[in-house]
Amino acid sequence: MNQLFPENSNEFEEIPIKDGILRFYPFLFSPKESEVFFTQLKENVKWKQEEIRIHGKIIPIPRLTAWFGDAGKTYMYSGITVEPEPWTPTLLEIKRKIEEVSNVTFNSVLLNYYRNERDSVSWHSDDESELNKNPIIGSVSFGDVRTFQLKHKTDKTLKLNKDLPDGSYLEMSGSTQHHWLHQIPKRTRKIGPRINLTFRIIWRNNERNIECKK
Ligand SMILES: O=C(O)CCC(=O)C(=O)O
Prior knowledge:
Low-confidence stretches: 1-5, 207-212
CATH class: Mainly Beta
Number of strands: 15
Bound molecules: 2-oxoglutaric acid
Number of domains: 1
Radius of gyration: 16 Å
Strand order of the largest sheet: 1-2-13-10-15-8-5
Order of helices and strands: EEHEEEEEHEEEEEEHEE
CATH architecture: Sandwich
Number of helices: 3
Largest sheet: 7 strands, antiparallel
């Protein structure tokens, strides 16, 4: 085992940003755990190819997704309504681990499956009204590294790139979602598959949760 990079650790770094809080746990899940979780999720989740309407045209979003959570935590974005699938043992195990360090109880999770470098999510904030003011978003990554980019909504000089490796956990809280946008950009160089899980707390049942991102 490389001494500099412990197999599995709760160590974290605070990433200093204006108007928000970012806490990064590079090794929360060990390589073995990450491999097992990645394979279970890839093979057992019923991945969906959602479509959105942009300027009257229906287009597939550039990644596969799935929505899980407590009963009634409906999610709606870009005209698509998704009812949560019930929690699976794998998701509950991952959730338990991040709840230990984040000290909150998440009630839903959006899964994104980026098949290769051409999959992406464009600039957006997780700031739907269902998440209330100053939401905590718990983002777990398994698989190939992708770059998570952030830019401040009003101060155009403020930008940040953070590589999210296999087994890492990024916690966004405070006013981050109100002041910053984030994305996973497409790349031209070859990148393997990655699964991202963004755990959330939805405060109301069966309400509209409008988000427009492609
Ligand atoms: O894949 C990621 O790291 C980000 C996912 C994301 O931004 C989202 O689901 O809202």
